[in-house]
Amino acid sequence: MEVRVINKSKHELPAYQTISAAGLDLRANLEEPVVLRPMERKLLPTALFMELPVGFEAQIRPRSGLAYKHGITVLNSPGTIDSDYRGEIKILLINLSEEAFTIENGERIAQMVISRHEQITWKAVEVLEDSERSAGGFGSTGKG
């Protein structure tokens, strides 16, 4: 699928790191390093703008290495970018660790996955069909 993009950063366009990767790594586009203190959140620019086809969305997800090694994650994970949005892609990061973390210009800070989606129409009813699970939730199917 071809996606129109404007790159106002000094970095290469996001790319898949392997042939089977689902996510493209997004880089911070910073004038100077940004320090994220413990429990602090900041909106970081990428200087990327895109035009997704109707019926698709971009999901912004954490990078597992940053989350595991440093406690840095995407706060509204996954963040959703709708196909009609034309503004700059920005990443809302939070530091869940007990140590400050410095983000450098060009650092890979999140990943973006493009997904097809559907829109629904509601059908108001009085009764829902029963299922094996029924109304069970929040651990009702077993441990873990």
Description:
- The chain has 144 residues and is mostly beta strands.
- It has one helix and eleven strands; from the N terminus they run ββββββαβββββ.
- It has one helix spanning 64-70, and strands spanning 4-7, 24-27, 34-36, 41-45, 48-51, 56-61, 72-74, 79-81, 90-95, 101-103, 108-116.
- The longest helix is centred in the middle third of the chain and has 7 residues, at 64-70.
- The two termini are 37 Å apart.
- It is an enzyme of class 3 (hydrolase).
Task: Compose a concise summary of this entry.
This protein is 5% helix and 35% strand. It has one helix at residues 64-70, and strands at 4-7, 24-27, 34-36, 41-45, 48-51, 56-61, 72-74, 79-81, 90-95, 101-103, 108-116. It catalyses: dUTP + H2O = dUMP + diphosphate + H(+).
